[in-house]
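The instructor's notes for this session suggest beginning with a concrete chain rather than abstract definitions. Hand out the sequence below and ask the class to guess, before any prediction is shown, which regions might be ordered.
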Amino acid sequence: MITIFLTFLKIGFLGFGGGYAMLSLIFQESERLGMTVQQFADLNALDGLIPGPIAINSATYLGQLYGGFWTAVAATLAVCVPSFIFVPLFLHYEEKINDNWVLTAILDGIKPASVGLILAVALSLMLLTVFGINDIGAWSKASLDWTSLLVLGVVFFLDSKYHVNPVWLILLAGVIGGVVYYL
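After discussion, reveal the predicted structure:
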């Protein structure tokens, strides 16, 4: 329980840019706890379905997975502690922070890095689900999963062309996967 608490305390303090930007940090730390890429993909799907912040949902899921109810509570509280510290500090010094051009420039530089972290997690999940490999270096061992590629294509098309609600897209992908892989 202490390991998971400290892990999510670290994620809470170091995570920057919102839930999706924090996914790469959550992924890296959860691998150290023994989570597989497939379990992380399940976590990512649940994050899309369950209301609430991604970091809190992830902490609760991992805590429950590795230690039960009380570990889930501890992980959830740990990821929230930094907000209880930083938000009042920010509100107190907001005017000084906004007027500091150096800090503003640093924050502007972090935004593209956050996008890169989100894309890295998306690429990792795509490599696993579509090609069955954990990293791009194992490309020679890749085997194309046509069903996953088809689902990815359909979901991308429906999202980009018709702007279908992501919850419906996740449910559609889950139904197709359930029918193909479990029936």
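Then share the key points. Residues 1 and 67 are 6 Å apart (CA to CA). The radius of gyration is 19 Å.
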